[in-house]
Target: Branched-chain-amino-acid aminotransferase
Amino acid sequence: FSNNVNSLRVASPTSNVVSELADIDWDNLGFGLMTTDYMYIMKCAQGEAFSSGELKRFGNIELNPSAGILNYGQGLFEGLKAYRKHDGNILLFRPEENAQRLRNGAERMCMPAPTVDQFLEAVKATVLANQRWIPPPGKGSLYIRPLLMGSGAVLGLAPAPEYTFLIYVSPVGNYFKEGLAPINLIVETEMHRATPGGTGGVKTIGNYAAVLQAQSAAKAKGYSDVLYLDSIHKKYLEEVSSCNVFVVKGNVISTPAIKGTILPGITRKSILDVARSQDFQVEERPVPVEELLDADEVFCTGTAVVVSPVGSITYLNKRVTYGSEGVGRVSQQLYSALTSLQMGLTEDTVGWITEL
Ligand code: COI
Model:
């Protein structure tokens, strides 16, 4: 790499396209939308299957005011990332898992979904078309945001007559303003993210609107985000607004079990496997909030947040702190193992990487 990354010419291994890197400040990426060149769009009617889509210049989309997504929230989203390797190749992390999760969610939300292959082809095409926006190695990643929505018009409550699958991308850096430093959470005791039988276990857009009130209040008080409890006992950990949560005690790493109210995170599942491979004892079970009080470490996982160490948690006006010397040993170890794999710095022996 030359010192001036903006003039770097990037060779794509499969497309033979040589593109300049976008002329942006790669050293200061946060997690905000930076519009790129292309988006992918594919449509189908209710009762039919998606067949073919196309890349279009990125821009606004037109929707009927009566569209199912606008009126009744019939929509799902996904999140995954592309990394640029030092040799110029582009890596995706477990994209078939996102494809399958979208299909599971679509069933719950009464929507048709792209097949796994259609999803993968669409993601690859969108990433390659926007490759000048993939950050140089070590500077961040290209966040890929697939959306599936009821785009047809409905007035009475019913599944929409038409569906749109769309993918857009944005270069991103760290999710939290703390960067890689530990975040500060507050346990929410009044509001809940999800209820049994509801949609907490799928990535529907409404789950995320539902956390905004508690999240805004927490941020106004200086916290990074909110940790939710289960809505029945108000006692067991669920998840943070945008990520899953893990508690470390000795050699045991525990996380709330997937039971319909918790988003089955792909980073969550990957971290559990990485932890097992490093001889930690892994437990997926109900985790009582009291376990936060004597945990050695707490961390969060998600595509956007990656592995974020937690520095403090406030519960019923009591503040517990972790890792007085910064990032905890276990959080750091798991973060390094996962990101080295995602960035192509360690060999992928588990088949999690798709190279474009
Ligand atoms: C992700 O981590 O990709 C998500 O979808 C969470 C979102 C709130 C940024």
